[in-house]
Amino acid sequence: MGLDRVRDVAARMQLGRPGEHTIVVGGTNGKGSTVAFIESIARAAGWKVGAYTSPHLLAYNERVRINGVDADDATLVAGFNAVEDARGDTPLTYFEYGTLCALWVFQQANLDLAVLEVGLGGRLDAVNIIDADVSVITTVDIDHADWLGSDREAIGEEKAGIIRGWKPVILGETDPPSSVLRRAYVLGANAIRGGSDFFAEAIDAEHWAWRDVSFRIELPQPALWAPIQRSNAATAIAALRALDKPVPDAAWAQGVAEARVAGRLQSFLREGVEVLLDVGHNPQAAGALAAALSARPVTGRTLAVYAALADKDAPGVVQALQAQVDAWVLAGLDGARGQSARQLRDRLQDSNAARAELADNVAAAVNAALAQAGEGDRVLVFGSFHTVAEALSMLRSAD
């Protein structure tokens, strides 16, 4: 772990700023949605925007977008060739290769704005070789504890590595860890906090307002409909306002309304049953899922298809959601970090998923849940990007 190798290769590639302006987005949950809101608003303002996100669901190309369009194979191959030509005998990780490729692609594109999502942590993440104009830390909670630490203060210290001296940092949480605030103070960074320096206020079922001390605007509810998405949209607006680059008033509303990102309560309809896909994989994300389900109740039952990597806090996830779920189907995931459905159920003996039906894989689990469901019921498929990718492939192939 470290940035020396990737910095050396970036220097050999003569990588400078990936765009006229750069926003780096880190945090435990909400990164992808926040990037999507920033990207959508900036595009509505007429800017040329590149977005680098991870992981992908169905194709690697999803990770590198320019003006909302995934990079094509030829562009990515050219970027990877540029990395390979420059690295010599310097070893690079999968994510480092991908980050350098994305930065190369963006540099060729003459972007007005590059939005870069942190892959893991912040301090030692390859994205952190870029000095952002604005840094964003959406939330801080327990995840990747083996790498980042076992409590919010330790994890916050890693996330805060993306903060730059005398530059704005947007904090999406009302109560961020003191380690994050301390880092901002030491560097002289302007910490702009949700619920303190900017606010997202409900107006009615269709509208909300964003405001700070000098600006207020009324907006439509995001198409990304979970209650937490209004907070993510508010964080994105704060980040763009911190750039001090003019945004037309109409672009705020248009961007919020048009932002989309796959795998965040993405909806499909199957014979009167709504199927919702969500990549949430830790207790904080599961809590947001529970709030979303509660805010949009159904007349029938909610059946959950859950598949998780072995290193995730499965009991904490199920506990956060169990009041909203009537029946569970557990699925296995392949790979080095995967686990079988039976292994997952063994970890859930003290929850209402202890008697869950088991399936070898996600597709079989979705079919099992749909077989139990009737009109007015819904099926929630969640627990990992891997879980959603398998379900998304299955559902799209059936369309």
How would you describe the overall organization of this protein?
By secondary structure, the protein is of the alpha/beta class. The protein has helices at residues 4-12, 31-44, 73-87, 94-109, 145-148, 152-159, 178-187, 227-242, 249-258, 283-295, 314-321, 341-346, 362-372, 385-398, and strands at residues 21-26, 49-52, 64-66, 69-70, 113-117, 134-137, 168-171, 190-193, 199-202, 207-211, 216-220, 264-270, 273-278, 302-306, 327-331, 357-359, 378-382. It has an eight-stranded mixed beta sheet, sandwiched between helices. The model has no long low-confidence stretch (mean pLDDT 95).
Which features characterize this protein?
single chain, 399 residues, alpha/beta, 8-stranded mixed beta sheet, 6-stranded mixed beta sheet, 14 helices
Structural class: alpha/beta
Residues in helices, as a percent range = 25-40%
Distance between the termini: 43 Å
**Main sheet, how many strands, which sense, barrel?**
8 strands, mixed
Topology record:
Elements (H helix, E strand, L loop, with lengths): L3 H9 L8 E6 L4 H14 L4 E4 L11 E3 L2 E2 L2 H15 L6 H16 L3 E5 L16 E4 L7 H4 L3 H8 L8 E4 L6 H10 L2 E4 L5 E4 L4 E5 L4 E5 L6 H16 L6 H10 L5 E7 L2 E6 L4 H13 L6 E5 L7 H8 L5 E5 L9 H6 L10 E3 L2 H11 L5 E5 L2 H14 L1
Parallel strand pairs: 1-5, 1-6, 2-5, 6-7, 7-8, 13-17, 14-15, 14-17, 15-16
Antiparallel strand pairs: 2-3, 3-4, 9-10, 10-11, 12-13
Helix pairs in contact: 2-8, 2-9, 3-4, 6-7, 10-11
